[in-house]
Amino acid sequence: MDNSTHVTVNTTDCEAVEIPHEIFFAIAMVSLTENLLVVVAVIKNKNLHSPMYCFICSLSIFNMTASVSKTWENIMIVFSKMGHLYSRGELAMKMDDVMDALVCMSFLGSIFSLLAIAVDRYITIFHALRYHTIMTMKRVAAILAGIWTFCAASGVLMAIFSHYTIIMTCFIVLFLISLALIMFLYVHMFLLARTHARKIASLPGNTVHQKHNMKGAITLAILFGVFIACWSPFFFHLLLIMICPLNPYCECYRSLFQVNVILLMCNSVIDPFIYAFRSVELRSTFRKMFCCSGDIFCHAIQCLQLNSNIRLQ
User: Fold this and answer.
1) CA dihedral sign of residues 80, 86, 88, 91
2) Most buried of the four, 123, 147, 280, 289, by CB within 10 Å?
3) Are 158 and 109 in contact (CB under 8 A)?
């Protein structure tokens, strides 16, 4: 999905905004580090071995996929500008298709992971007594396998047939339908939350559990809002390619393509901050991870000092 792929015969006074490649690399490295920390934290802490955090791990891996794909694409652009890679060569075109497939897969995986998390929160809040019967780890594994298989296949198909208008249309329609479905689920969840809270408050020990689940739902609503803010400009870019490919005003917006890609990558940087800020258990796990690393470092220094003292004596 390189900007050069969508060149039109129309001229415009708006020059394409160029973002330094160093910024892409920096954002990608931060994203990879943060999301990898989330995955490691969930794996290490047995208290986080729950369906919701399995879906959050899936979301983190899809975020890393988007960052890696855009980073590799920018590396190819740098080599092309240096003359080490022919941008229209067979190898470069195939690699570009692979990167496009990964971006499409990352988008679909992110939105389906958010949808799975929303359904999980819905079941937790409104079917609390049957939650562990409904959301077993086997079903979670099957859901994740289905998401990854569908997203990988869809990403490949969209990358190969992206020049067909119908494929681009399906991509945008899927985006809008998924957004509408998640928004409906959250609105329905929050509208019924108060009524359901009154009913479940009469059960002993469920008030705190209910508040905890609502906090989780609010966290995921924030994630969803960030996802919309970061991905919508990119999809508006695709929409303009379809409806007004020769319009100079549309071309002006398309000159911001690299800015839209930066927003897309920023989504994978912001998400882990939301996890860490909203989840007490995840914050505690991060703290223990860093403290353990610090203790090992301090212990190594003490050993070196002790050895030096023994030698002096």
Assistant:
1) negative
2) 147
3) no
The pLDDT of 72-101, averaged and rounded, is 72
What's the CA gap between 51 and 49, in Å, rounded? 7
Q: Which two tokens stand for residue 264?
A: 């897309």
Alpha helices in the chain (DSSP H): 21-44, 51-81, 90-126, 131-134, 137-160, 165-201, 207-243, 248-254, 257-278, 280-312
Which residue in 11, 55, 216 sits closest to 128, CA to CA?
216
- Candidates 179, 298, 300, 223; CA nearest to 58 is 223
pLDDT of 5 higher than 60? no
Q: Say which residue the tokens 């983190």 belong to.
A: 60
State mean pLDDT over 3-18: 57
Q: Using one digit for the tens of pLDDT, what is the confidence trace for 143-197?
A: 999 999 998 988 888 778 777 777 777 777 877 887 788 778 777 777 776 666 5
Answer for the pair 266, 27: CB distance below 8 angstroms, yes or no: yes
Distance between CA 263 and CA 101 in Å, rounded? 19
Q: How many residues are present in the chain?
A: 313
Cα-based angle 108, 254, 6 (whole degrees, multiple of 5): 75
Q: What is the mean pLDDT of residues 225-238?
A: 83
Average pLDDT over residues 100-109: 84
Query: Which contacts (CB < 8 Å, 24+ apart) does range 183-187 have?
Result: 183/224, 185/115, 185/118, 185/119, 185/122, 186/118, 186/217, 186/220, 186/221, 186/224
pTM of the model: 0.75
Residue 117 neighbours by CB under 8 Å, 6+ apart: 52, 55, 56, 59, 220, 223
- CA 241 – CA 247 distance, rounded (Å): 10
Residue 274: name the closest of 234, 215, 205 by CA. Answer: 215
pLDDT in tens, 129-146: 888 888 889 999 999 999
Contact 44, 279 (CB under 8 A): no
